[in-house]
Structure formats: C-alpha cells, structure tokens
Amino acid sequence: MRWTTVAIVGVGIAMLVAPVTAQQSLSDVAGSIKLKKPEGESVVIDHRTVGTVKKSTQVGTDGERLLAATNRCWEISQALISLLGETGSGKVFYDDGWRGRVASAGNAFDEAREDLEYSPVPDRFSEAYREAQRGVLASGQALEVLRSAIASDRPQFSQAKTQFAGGSSTLNTAMVQMRAVLREEESEAPPPGVDPLTATRSVASLCGGWFEQGSDDYTRCVAQQRTALDAINGRFAFNVGLEEAAFNTVRNGCLSEFPKDFVRRDSCERRRIEAAK
Questions:
Q1: Strand pairing partners for 43?
Q2: Cβ–Cβ < 8 Å for 55, 93
C-alpha cells in the first residue's frame, strides 16, 4: 500500500466538551465563595454561573448535561455550607441579610434539584445518577431543617450541617462516576482521520530527531515507521476479532500514549488487542 494512500486513514482523539449555561443570579447567596473540591482543587463559585439552567440552551451529550446538573447541585450545596459556616456568632442567625441569602440559595437548590430530576439518564449513567439522587436527597433534607429553624426562629440546625456535608460528598462521588463514564465513551468513539502530510511530517520529525537526515539510519527509521503505519491502517475491529467499542478503546489509548511514533503505537495495539480477546 502506498504511503500517501494509507496515511489518509490515520487516527486522532475526539475531545468532549461539557459547557454549562446559567441565568439566575446568586449574588446574594454567597457572592464568590472560594472552596476546595475533594480532589484538592480550589474553585470559585461565581454568582453568574449558579442559577437556573435552561435545558433548551444546553449543548453536549445527555451524559454531559447530567454531569452539569449534578455539579450545579453540588455547587449550591457548597454555598449553603459556607452560609452555615457564618453562624459562628449567634447573632448571624437572626440577621435578615443572612436569612435572605439562605432563602435565595435554597430556591436555587430547589431549581437545580428539579433540573437534575428531569435530566435524561443514559443507561450507562444509571448508577451515578442514583448516587446523585442520594446526595440531593440528603442536601434537601438539610435545607428543610435549616428552613424550619429560621421559620421557628430557633437556631437549632446542627443536623443540617451534617446532612449538607454528607450530601455534598455523595454528589461529588456521583460526579466522579459520571466523569469516568464520559471518559469511557470518549475512548470508545471512532477516532478521526489524519491527513498524509501530517503523518509524513510526523515521521520526518521523529526520525530526524534521532538520526541525521539522509543517513542510512534515518532511511531505515522512516521505512520502519511507514511499515508500522501501514499495519495500523490495515487493522480494523472486524479483522482482529474485537467489538467496535473495544477496538476503538485500544486504538485511542495507544494513540494517546504514542501520538508520533507509529512503530510503538503499532506494538501497543498488537499487545492490547491480544489482551482484549
């Protein structure tokens, strides 16, 4: 097979994007509250991004939208936890401004919870969705305890702090599971092609980094890379005995590890195909 022909059938990786839009302002909820995710990353909750999401304006897959809805519930739970943290002084509980921010955050949580409830749930996300529901239930119960304490004018809501913490942790677990499923879907997606010019330049760059251009070693390196690419381009799910998803997972994984070295990528695919059978 000629080099300029086979290089058309290259591979690449498709990236997932999960944009989220929002509309209701929560400037009175917590302003911009700096928090820490369980993974250890800091995050700033921006009042512009915490609000009611219009399903009609969302883009992305059902799984991405489900993750976005879960993340909103988590963010607002964190905002409510932060508001509870302001009650170190007993006077804060009776402050009308603080109560107003709690009410705004509570309303936003109700809307986020409804968004999650009506989000489409692909089969592969069922377990993660059930985890998200448990987290929302715990946070919702905590919110009711806090609302009742405010309504009765009695600062008895220690139970709410525990429930909010548990609900937030469970929501985070659900998001971790959803991201894992999204990564699986990404790995199983058919890789797009790469043009022959890109492949030629990749080989020239790789071999030129190892050997002097025009030398016997350089020529040998180029020939080995081209042979490996021919093997890769002639390999398909049907002729190696794998399901399409499993084959794509192998191909995308090896491409990610060896984006420019066709010899090592070919070897990687051979090993993983045999292991997957």
A1: 35
A2: no
Measured CA distances, 152 to 108, 157, 199, 228 (Å): 22, 11, 71, 74
For the question of whether the overall pTM of this predicted structure is more than 0.70, the answer is: no
Model confidence pLDDT, tens digit, residues 23-40 = 333 334 344 333 434 444
Whole-angstrom Cα distance, residue 151 to residue 142?
Answer: 14
Separation CA 136–CA 127 (nearest Å) = 14
Residue 150 belongs to what H/E stretch? helix 126-152
> Which has the closest alpha carbon to 129: 175, 74, 62, 186?
175
Cα separation, 68 vs 13, in Å, equals: 23
- Structural domains in the chain? 33-188 (1.20.120), 195-276 (no CATH)
User: CA nearest 72: which of 99, 144, 243, 64?
Assistant: 64
Q: What CA–CA distance (Å, rounded) separates 217 from 219?
A: 5
Per-residue pLDDT reduced to its tens digit, 226-275: 999 999 999 999 999 999 999 999 999 999 999 999 999 999 999 999 99
Report CA-CA distances (Å) from 208 to 218, 257, 261: 7, 20, 12
Q: Which among 231, 260, 236 has a CA at the least distance from the CA of 250? A: 236
